[in-house]
Amino acid sequence: MTETKEIKTPSINTLVTGTDGGRQVLLVGLKTAYQNKPQYQKSLKREYDTCHEIEHPNILKYLEEKEVEGFGNCIVMEWEPARTLADYIQENHSDEEKKNIIRQIAEGLGFLHQNGLVHGALSPSVIYITSQGDRVKILNFRLRFADHLYEPMSSMKFRAPEAKDGTVTLDARTDVFSLGTILKEMGLGDDYQNVVSGSCSFGRNDRFPNIDSFLEAFEHHRVSRRSSSPENSTTASNKKAAVLVSTIVALLVIAALVFFNRNSSSNDVAQPMSEVTDSTQNTNAEAPATAAPAANETASQDNAAPAQQLTPADNAAQQYTGELVFMNNLVPQMHIDIDKLYAKGGGAAAIRKRVQTYYRGLRKALGNLNDNQFAAYDKAFAEYIQQKNAE
């Protein structure tokens, strides 16, 4: 091993670049104080056994595991000159260049998830950007720390809550949180605030369920900002509708909070809810109570992508055109969600709270609509609540 250069890290692992047999490599091993500890050696071997077959252009490839003089047992990975994403962010790059980096990170993560793996500790310090071509190379290795005191806050802020406390099995939403935090750190502006919000919620049920959903929302913003003609606006609205509906279906926490009250009005309801509030006052408050889904339902429930099949009545619903075309997809799904709420029943106060929460959550998910579009949503929402109350 020649021309070695250590990459500084506060973890128990050592990262060293150099030349081995004429090829450039990255060594991932253990610092001297930890090399004789069986648990850390087993951890190193487990990482290799799990990841050595993963091969993707945006992920550093595992080449072999072997003893390296001066460094002990190491995982040998491919390497080429690069700097960390943390360094890249400090450089002067255009928004398009930054978005290309986000896409590459997402592609790498999506591939991991397709292969049943979760990174779980993604941060700018373990994402490398090549010096030639600015290609993303993710270090698919979870650096270990002696304890949480040694992990710097600069990395911890990118870790999802469940990855910090270790209370649940990690899934794709863990990496979505990290990617959303990275997106925020990239400084692409308010246009991407909805994507960040959909990624970085404390509760993982409130996040995009997978990388595909993240990318749909991310690309939607790019298209809508560039659309100027009516034709392009309609196309953007259609794409927005697809993103919104898939997000609503996938995020079970929002769906779990989709339960509306049919009783007395409340002072803290947003103004557009006044019509809905008035229409719920004479609802039977003695419907059978059924417990709402727990916030920590299993990942398999959260990721249940298929929506319920739409009824003929929904399919025959009003056909919106122009800037309201997104309502053709949104309204039928909203009806399904509302039907679920009424079927759940429950006490008046609890249901009332769920009504408000769903309405606000869905309205927020709609993003940057104009006043006309929000008015159409409010009207359709209120009309269906009145219809349900009249049944």
Kindly, what is the distance between the CA atoms of the first and last residues, rounded to a whole number of angstroms?
Answer: 77 Å
What is the helix content? 40-55%
Provide the residue-averaged pLDDT: 77
Question: Which blocks of ≥5 consecutive residues have pLDDT under 50?
Answer: 222-237, 252-317
Structural class: alpha+beta
Largest sheet: 5 strands, antiparallel
Radius of gyration: 25 Å
Number of helices: 16
Order of helices and strands: EEEHEEEHHEEHHHHHHHHHHHHH
Number of strands: 8
- Global shape: elongated
User: Which percent range describes the beta-strand content?
Assistant: 5-15%
How would you describe this structure in keywords?
391 residues; alpha+beta; 5-stranded antiparallel β-sheet; 3-stranded antiparallel β-sheet
What does this entry show, briefly?
With 391 residues, this protein is an alpha+beta fold.
